[in-house]
Amino acid sequence: MRQHPNVTPMTVCAALALAASLAAAPQAGGNGSAATRTDQQASTAAPPALAAGLIGYKIGPGDMLEVRVWKETEASVPAVMVRSDGRVSLPMIKEVDVVGLTPGELERLLTARFARFINEPEVTVLVKEVHSERIYLVGAVKKEGSIRFHPSMTVLQALAEGGGLTDFARKKKIYVLRTQNQKQIRIPFNYQDVVKGSRMEQNFAVAPGDTIVVP
């Protein structure tokens, strides 16, 4: 094999050494940065199942809904209450059974119904008020019992609805009991940290049926 006249054994060795050092440097740095990112994520990420807002919510009697049909003001309704028979009355499509549906399921149902009268309707269902779902407070709160669930209500707001904590409450030991996938899970809530403005990820949105326990 012919060698290029400008290539010498010294230049070959130098090139190999430089390549090895370049290959090693990113690998070490990459591992370090990846480990740092992992540590940061582990310390700041909220516990699973806390992504809230209407988790597990299904429409019930007494709830107030808003139905928007894009560019169709005559078909839109700013506020409609679910009657005790589980129905709502809407323009064009008349009576609709809505109890037991999620907002997303109702959007798909209404889209199909409105499609008989409107070309490619875009339907949005907003929950304005929830009267059918409750949150439960037990333990060292000033008013034990159930409170009305509101969309996007946080743990701190729910405790405030219950009149706040008593003087004997163990503020670092509060937890929320939630039924998820037919299993009951326990989610910690450190009241003391949250009111100081730290670990705000613990002030997650409650879900219908949650029980907040204050030891």
Straight-line distance between termini: 83 Å
Order of helices and strands: HEEEEHEEEHEEHE
Number of H/I helices: 4
Strand content: 25-35%
What form results from the Cα inertia axes? elongated
Largest sheet: 5 strands, mixed
Kindly report the average pLDDT value.
80
What does this structure look like?
By secondary structure, the protein is an alpha+beta fold. Among the domains are: 64-129, wza like domain (wza like fold, 2-Layer Sandwich); 134-214, Outer membrane lipoprotein wza fold like, CATH 3.10.560.10. It has 4 helices and 10 strands. It has helices at residues 9-44, 103-114, 155-161, 191-195, and strands spanning 64-69, 77-81, 87-90, 94-97, 123-129, 134-139, 145-148, 174-180, 183-189, 211-214. β8 (174-180) and β9 form a beta hairpin. The longest helix is centred in the N-terminal third of the chain and has 36 residues, at 9-44.
Features:
10 strands; disordered N terminus; wza like fold; 215 residues; three-stranded antiparallel β-sheet; Outer membrane lipoprotein wza fold like; 4 helices
List the helices and strands and how they pair.
Blueprint: H1 9-44, E1 64-69, E2 77-81, E3 87-90, E4 94-97, H2 103-114, E5 123-129, E6 134-139, E7 145-148, H3 155-161, E8 174-180, E9 183-189, H4 191-195, E10 211-214
